[in-house]
Design brief:
Elements lengths: L1 E5 L3 H13 L3 E5 L2 H10 L4 E5 L7 H10 L6 E5 L4 H9 L4 E4 L4 H16 L5 E4 L2 E4 L4 E4 L2 E3 L3 H12 L7 H8 L9 H14 L5 E3 L3 E3 L5
Parallel strand pairs: 1-2, 1-3, 3-4, 4-5
Antiparallel strand pairs: 6-7, 7-8, 8-9, 10-11
Helix pairs in contact: 2-3, 6-8
């Protein structure tokens, strides 16, 4: 899963990015509102974490523009302001959730996970398909109750496919959601990750639609 973090405080941005990366997500950081708006309009993200007090263009202005131009990516706003009217302004501008600074990192992580699940129409944090289970809270994968060790890239692919169960996902889309903006997006490596997942989790979990992509069919 891919996150856009719009935050101008370098220390806080590094802390958030580190936590998100440790949980298997890729993070692009925008230090000002202009860059945040550009990335949000041109890159596919699963969640945007948007600070209200950004330089050059404030977060509320960015959010209003994104919603007006049809960008529907879920947004969590961060604000250092305790005034309830600021939170109302953010929600009315199109935010899906908010956090007031200072906050605890585990709470931000939980809100991001919940936002991603909500977008996928999934209320349960644990995904199931036949004898395979994927716990999105800690990225733990089991087959018939037996834990399986996966690499970070394998977890990223599996997570995206599970969150999009029942929908065909192309190699290009997968690569766009598991690599950073400035990363080396080689969609051919996706086939390598899928083959490794099949060896570890069974051949029936991920289906290939030749020339189009992959799908984990929704559990009946």
């Amino acid at each position: 899963m891919r996150i856009l973090l719009a935050e101008d405080e370098p220390v806080l941005a590094d802390q958030i990015r580190s936590v998100m990366k440790s949980e298997g997500r890729v993070v692009d950081v925008a230090p000002n509102g202009i860059e945040a708006q550009f990335l949000a309009e041109t890159e596919p993200y699963d969640v945007i974490i948007l600070d209200i007090g950004l330089p050059e263009r404030d977060g509320i202005t960015v959010l209003k523009h994104l919603r007006a131009t049809g960008v529907d990516t879920p947004v969590i706003i961060l604000t250092a302001r305790n005034d309830w009217s600021d939170r109302v302004d953010g929600l009315d501008a199109g935010a899906d959730d908010y956090l007031t600074k200072p906050f605890h990192m585990p709470e931000l992580s939980a809100r991001v996970r919940a936002m991603i699940r909500r977008k996928a129409g999934q209320t349960n944090p644990v995904f199931h398909k036949d004898d395979v289970s994927f716990d999105s809270r800690n990225n733990q994968v089991t087959v018939s109750g037996i834990p399986k060790n996966l690499t970070a890239q394998e977890v990223a692919v599996l997570s995206y496919l599970f969150h999009n169960s029942g929908r065909l996902v192309s190699r290009t889309e997968l690569s766009e959601h598991i690599y950073q903006f400035d990363g080396d997006r080689d969609s051919n490596t996706i086939a390598v990750f899928v083959n490794r997942l099949r060896k570890k989790l069974g051949n029936d979990l991920i289906e290939t639609v030749r020339g189009r992509g992959y799908v984990i069919k929704a559990a009946a």
